[in-house]
Write a structure and sequence with these properties.
Number of helices: 23
Radius of gyration: 23 Å
Low-confidence stretches: 122-141
Length: 432
């Protein structure tokens, strides 16, 4: 993941990440082989692609979501990638590399994930300094592995209530568009090659379950609009795009088109127009977190921070398990000069969803501004640990323990965490 973050633009957007994580978790729960914790994340890239790394790290390019015509197609790609993880397609190869040290193996894994699944040039960069001759594009995705991932993925799709025909249908549509030059050859077809026999096999498997017609979740359309709005270089282009959709009525979902337009208006500081459009959205869906967060953002941009805080505080009280609402509330508190309250809110987020490096970064910043030095170093340590940097994490915890005025309870908690990470680091050195 450290190599992925260096090579690719991982999106730090709580609304987008929460949707993808929720969709992924639903599929994992429906899978008969998908137990474990998964990390689903978006990559800011117009390419139509996705990839699965070891330990359940699954990345989805923004371009793939925009190319998906319905939620079942996006779910199909996730189900396919989850199957690659559960069947250990990547790790089977590396289990044979016993002669490599753990750092070299990690580098080789990164090179394979980035090279075989994303981009050959990125893989070559990641493989610098190791025996890259063994890294081939076919290591992870043989035809057998692809068919196995299709088979398990289709079963997962059906069990989760999605249309099992979405998987062969999506791949076939991409291939057809590529052949007729409607789009350039998608990276997904290059890294997940589709043959006629594979498509036929997938269709045959889907026949066993039959069509499952279900309406798309509104959130699917909203995240597509959010990603589309992000894809434009400036606000005016985003506004023009969505206004054109609304005028011609060429949209898959009217609310999503209006949401995208409101995002563009807010980005362009057209506050009055953004507020009017957002108020209409909230009137139709008063409990939709995306609309509530946008309303608060508009208030904050116009100087009404107290109203933004009150709006989000009320929303969090009504929906305490909603992570994007909590993070938006914390961000607004921070901007309004209330870091201690922001930190308390973020601590609740980590209790509900631990291990997120970007959340720990927010917590460290809040603790620093609140004057809580021990907590600042403690959360820096958790961020580093989440990113795989054990030794720097240990150093930060040791600094935290030396802070004056540390309570017995906090010192004990830090000491326990320090001991656990030290043992993990020691075990890792032994395996080298």
């Amino acid at each position: 993941m450290k190599s992925v973050r260096k090579a690719l633009s991982v999106i730090d957007d709580p609304i987008l990440t929460d949707y993808l994580q929720s969709l992924g978790n639903r599929l994992v729960a429906a899978s008969t082989t998908g137990a474990g914790r998964y990390n689903f994340f978006f990559i800011e890239n117009p390419a139509i692609n996705a990839f699965a790394g070891p330990d359940g790290h699954i990345g989805v390019f923004s371009g793939l979501v925009l190319a998906s015509e319905n939620e079942s197609e996006l779910a199909a790609v996730l189900a396919h990638e989850i199957a690659h993880v559960t069947q250990r397609h990547l790790m089977r190869f590396f289990e044979d590399q016993k002669r490599l040290s753990i750092p070299a193996t990690a580098a080789l894994i990164a090179a394979t994930v980035l090279g075989a699944q994303v981009d050959a040039d990125l893989g070559a960069a990641a493989a610098a300094g190791i025996q890259a001759a063994t890294v081939q594009r076919q290591i992870n995705f043989t035809r057998e592995n692809e068919k196995e991932a299709d088979r398990i993925g289709i079963a997962t799709l059906a069990a989760a209530g999605f249309d099992p025909y979405a998987m062969p249908g999506f791949f076939e549509r991409l291939g057809r568009a590529s052949r007729t030059h409607e789009i350039s050859a998608p990276e997904y077809l290059q890294t997940h090659p589709v043959t006629s026999s594979r498509t036929a096999d997938a269709l045959g498997r889907a026949d066993r379950y039959g069509h499952k017609q279900r309406p798309d979740d509104l959130r699917f359309h909203l995240i597509r609009a959010r990603l589309r709005a992000r894809s434009f270089s400036n606000a005016q282009k985003a506004i023009a795009h969505f206004r054109s959709q609304l005028k011609s009525k060429r949209y898959r979902n009217e609310l999503a088109a209006r949401y995208g337009c409101a995002l563009g208006l807010a980005r362009g500081n057209q506050i009055r127009a953004a507020r009017e459009m957002t108020e209409k959205l909230i009137a139709r869906h008063p409990n939709q977190a995306e609309f509530i967060i946008l309303e608060a953002r508009i208030d904050a941009k116009s100087g009404a921070r107290d109203r933004a805080i009150k709006t989000l505080q009320t929303a969090v009280g009504l929906r305490p398990s909603n992570i994007p609402l909590r993070i938006a509330y914390a961000d607004t508190l921070m901007a309004a000069g209330h870091p201690a309250r922001a930190l308390k809110t973020l601590e609740e987020v980590t209790r509900r969803r631990p291990g997120q490096a970007l959340i720990y970064q927010r917590m460290s910043d809040a603790a620093l501004k609140a004057g809580q030095k021990a907590a600042t170093h403690r959360y820096r340590a958790e961020k580093l640990y989440a990113e795989g940097d054990l030794e720097p994490a240990i150093h930060q915890l040791e600094i935290a323990l030396r802070q004056p005025g540390l309570s017995y309870h906090d010192a004990s908690r830090i000491q326990v965490r320090l001991g656990a990470i030290k043992r993990e680091a020691k075990d890792a050195k032994k395996r080298r």
